[in-house]
């Protein structure tokens, strides 16, 4: 069985991850929070292209209660891989952030992924081959001013995945983080063309990443041949910052 749940599947990177994994033979839970139309369209697209695989849409708000998280996990068919591709940021000085803003970024990017990992572990370790991949950030290695909370959550994912990988290594469950640099997604459309051009000039490869640049590494880590790679943060940044 090759069944994965991709959290944040309706986002730009999440969609490309789903397309890449589907092409590699995976059945997929396509997770969304509110973009049901995008999720359903993606699932339909994949089912038409790969009719021998299963593609389900599934909804979960990461603001859910602990009981709702438990109920969600109990509702799933068995999976042997999990990809956490969801994530948000709140741009601005720390002094400008409300306590609610801080809590929301922490919860969606770090706290709930850790809770879901704990809840999914019994299901994952039943399989000879199982995988977890978190989507971190280059800012988890080089903190960014004006994105302090985001940087903290992404650094937390890297250290959590490193530590957790050591706990579960004997079970065959590998745990890794993919840390992109600047990616051409909706999240970065808040910046002006001039700002993005300045970033491009700082990137040795001369461009922002595309979703498929990140999806390639997720697909690779989920393959059976990657069984000796665990506890790692892999930077996909075009040589920028790291």
UniProtKB/TrEMBL annotation:
It holds the Pfam family adh_short. Keywords: Oxidoreductase. GO terms for molecular function: 3-oxoacyl-[acyl-carrier-protein] reductase (NADPH) activity. Gene3D superfamilies: NAD(P)-binding Rossmann-like Domain. GO terms for biological process: monocarboxylic acid metabolic process. InterPro entries: NAD(P)-bd_dom_sf (IPR036291), Sc_DH/Rdtase_CS (IPR020904), SDR (IPR050259), SDR_fam (IPR002347). Its EC number is 1.1.1.100. SUPFAM superfamilies: NAD(P)-binding Rossmann-fold domains (SSF51735). It is an enzyme of class 1 (oxidoreductase). PROSITE patterns: ADH_SHORT. It comes from the Bacteria. Belongs to the short-chain dehydrogenases/reductases (SDR) family. This is 3-oxoacyl-[acyl-carrier-protein] reductase. It comes from Lactobacillus gigeriorum DSM 23908 = CRBIP 24.85.
């Amino acid at each position: 069985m090759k069944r994965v749940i991709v959290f944040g599947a309706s986002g730009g990177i999440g969609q490309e991850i789903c397309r890449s994994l589907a092409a590699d033979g995976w059945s997929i839970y396509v997770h969304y929070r509110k973009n049901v139309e995008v999720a359903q369209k993606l699932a339909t697209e994949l089912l038409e292209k790969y009719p021998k695989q299963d593609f389900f849409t599934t909804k979960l708000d990461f603001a859910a209660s602990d009981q709702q998280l438990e109920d969600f996990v109990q509702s799933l068919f068995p999976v042997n891989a999990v990809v956490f591709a969801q994530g948000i940021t709140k741009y601005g000085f720390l002094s400008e952030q409300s306590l609610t803003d801080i809590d929301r970024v922490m919860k969606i990017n770090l706290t709930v992924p850790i809770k879901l990992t704990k809840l999914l572990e019994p299901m994952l370790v039943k399989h000879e081959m199982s995988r977890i991949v978190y989507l971190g950030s280059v800012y988890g290695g080089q903190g960014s001013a004006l994105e302090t909370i985001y940087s903290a959550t992404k650094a937390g994912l890297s250290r959590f995945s490193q530590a957790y990988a050591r706990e579960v290594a004997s079970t065959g469950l590998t745990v890794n983080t993919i840390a992109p640099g600047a990616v051409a997604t909706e999240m970065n459309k808040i910046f002006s063309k001039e700002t993005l051009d300045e970033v491009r000039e700082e990137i040795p490869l001369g461009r922002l990443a595309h979703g498929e640049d990140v999806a390639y590494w997720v697909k690779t880590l989920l393959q059976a041949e990657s069984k000796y790679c665990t506890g790692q943060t892999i930077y996909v940044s075009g040589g920028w910052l790291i």
